[in-house]
């Protein structure tokens, strides 16, 4: 598969009558977005706003973040199998509005708390404070059941990204990135002496507000499955998880999966990148044994010498992560785990809900319990009431002047377990 | 075909209403974990993991766990899993309080996640998976 991501750098954002890019300025026709989204009979109202880096704006509660793109050559338009016709993704040419993001908001339930601050202290902690954000606030019709409500908001976000992506039509890119990976035999013939490395990407797959999707299929319903890395970079993997703010993997982060991009970077130099195995994190223990065995079998079938495993979430998924690690190591396949830590305010507590001695190489993407202070915003996009929820969970953290003290776990993408975030790791 | 009974341990009123045979705990999340631990020590198997998939769900006032009724042998794995879950929960409870402001939403999400788990059970267990008192719905 050969995928060309043609990046058009966005350096400013404004509302206007047309959808276009001129000299790095993205103009958004909000009426077009509203009209098209309201074609969905489940949507009562849509509001479109913009938020640019540095503004004293808070966006809350965030459901998903999506990168707007337009495929100009090759199969599959937008999110194939979901908001457009099914197609094989992973090949062709895609114009990317690099630096722009669609942010969907709207509370499906009252305790969603994901926040993006576009300025100051809060901006430091989320990668989506430096994107030019088109904020789409979706109000569904009354009386929808929670699953339909969630699906309505999820689809609207994807559709909005497709509509905005049309602004990239006939715009020359600032940078072109090529991603080309043959089948495992071809790559091993080319690089016979390099270690064969597979990537296991775990996805929360547990029900309402705790799901992931591949080509629109709920990952609750899949066995671990092999995909070409280009398919994920081309929009095959979609987020449906919106309560674990800091370590949910947004659709934007799937489209720009840092582990995939880094493995690509090292492919043919240090490693032979074998591809991606998507592994669902289910709720039953028997299901966890099954996905563990199946994941290990796929890694062995690929002949992998080593595997990078990234987690999504905290709690019961820690068990999946460590079971897969242990079983791979028992098979003499080296593992590197990527996870965040829930290590207490002082960072001194055991960071995961489970542990195993085989987990020797673990990359931490940050401590979700770290406390941050977020000053009062001049403007809130979304639901003001959600701020109380953000502060919830412990006493006395919403100050009279509107300042909030909260844990990092409320900040979108703060401790991304696929490494698409602002924190870094230092060895002491 | 063997017949094994499944049980739900819950403090969620909505679950109690829908599954009248559930073991209903008048108490908090930790009480559900403690009751589950007691049953596991007496030989019950854990069917679902005692913890949720995100920190947010540790704020939930409600929790529902599926177990399999008493087995012939006691399995260390299940004991270790429930004991670790209690330690993890207590660690969180020391610095966070449950989010009772949104208790109705948590009640519903816990119920919805339970329904997903029951659906998952259907695909996993070919034996006659009955809830104590009625078929899994």
UniProtKB/TrEMBL annotation, chain A:
InterPro entries: Asp/glu_Ase-like_sf, Gly/sarc/bet_Rdtase_B_asu/bsu, Gly_reductase_pB_sua/b. GO terms for molecular function: oxidoreductase activity, acting on X-H and Y-H to form an X-Y bond, with a disulfide as acceptor. Keywords: Pyruvate, Schiff base. The active site is at residue 242. The modification Pyruvic acid (Cys) is found at residue 242. This is Beta-aspartyl-peptidase. The keyword Manganese does not apply.
From TrEMBL, chain B:
InterPro entries: GrdX-like. NCBIfam families: GrdX (NF038093). This is GrdX protein. It comes from Natranaerobius trueperi.
């Amino acid at each position: 598969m050969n995928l060309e991501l043609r990046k058009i750098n966005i350096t400013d954002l404004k509302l206007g009558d047309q959808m276009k890019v001129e000299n790095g300025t993205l103009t958004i026709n909000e009426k077009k977005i509203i009209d098209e989204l309201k074609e969905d009979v489940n949507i009562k109202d849509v509001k479109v706003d913009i938020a640019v880096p540095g503004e004293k704006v808070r966006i809350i509660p965030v459901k998903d973040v999506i990168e707007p793109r337009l495929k100009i050559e090759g199969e599959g338009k937008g999110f194939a199998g979901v908001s457009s016709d099914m197609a094989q993704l992973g090949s062709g040419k895609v114009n990317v509005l690099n630096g722009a993001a669609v942010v969907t908001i709207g509370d499906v339930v009252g305790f969603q708390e994901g926040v993006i601050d576009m300025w100051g202290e809060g901006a430091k902690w989320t990668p989506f404070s430096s994107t030019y954000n088109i904020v789409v606030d979706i109000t569904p019709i009354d009386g929808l059941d929670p699953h339909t409500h969630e699906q309505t908001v999820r689809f609207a976000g994807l559709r909005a990204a497709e509509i905005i992506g049309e602004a990239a039509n006939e715009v020359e890119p600032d940078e072109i990135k090529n991603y080309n990976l043959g089948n495992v035999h071809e790559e091993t013939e080319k690089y016979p002496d390099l270690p064969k490395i597979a990537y296991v990407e775990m996805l929360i797959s547990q029900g309402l507000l705790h799901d992931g999707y591949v080509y629109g299929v709920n990952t609750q319903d899949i066995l671990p499955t092999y995909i070409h890395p280009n398919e994920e970079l081309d929009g095959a993997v979609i987020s449906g998880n919106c309560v674990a703010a800091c370590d949910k993997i947004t659709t934007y982060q799937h489209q720009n999966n840092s582990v995939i991009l880094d493995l690509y970077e090292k492919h043919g130099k240090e490693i032979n990148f074998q591809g991606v195995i998507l592994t669902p994190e289910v709720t039953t223990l028997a299901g966890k044994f099954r996905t563990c065995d199946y994941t290990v079998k796929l890694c062995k079938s690929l002949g992998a010498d080593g595997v990078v495993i990234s987690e999504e979430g905290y709690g019961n998924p820690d068990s999946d992560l460590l079971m897969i690690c242990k079983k791979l190591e028992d098979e003499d396949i080296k593992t590197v785990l990527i996870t965040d830590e829930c290590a207490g305010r002082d960072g001194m507590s055991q960071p995961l809900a489970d542990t195993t001695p085989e987990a020797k190489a673990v990359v931490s993407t940050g401590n979700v319990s770290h406390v941050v202070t977020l000053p009062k915003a001049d403007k809130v996009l979304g639901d003001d009431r959600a701020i109380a929820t953000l502060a919830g969970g412990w006493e006395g953290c919403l100050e009279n002047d509107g300042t909030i003290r909260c844990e990092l776990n409320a900040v979108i993408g703060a401790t991304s377990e696929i490494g698409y975030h602002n924190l870094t790791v230092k060895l002491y | 075909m063997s017949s094994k009974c499944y049980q739900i341990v819950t403090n969620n009123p909505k679950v109690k209403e829908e599954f009248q045979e559930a073991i209903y705990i008048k108490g908090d999340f930790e009480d559900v974990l403690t009751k589950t631990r007691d049953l596991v020590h007496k030989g019950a198997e854990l069917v679902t993991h005692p913890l949720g998939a995100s920190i947010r769900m540790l704020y939930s006032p409600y929790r529902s766990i599926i177990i399999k009724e008493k087995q012939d042998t006691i399995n260390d794995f299940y004991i270790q899993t429930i004991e670790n879950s209690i330690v993890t929960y207590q660690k969180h409870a020391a610095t966070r309080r449950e989010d009772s402001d949104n208790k109705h939403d948590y009640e519903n999400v816990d119920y919805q996640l339970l329904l997903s788990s029951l659906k998952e059970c259907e695909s996993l267990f070919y034996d006659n998976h009955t809830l104590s008192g009625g078929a899994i719905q």
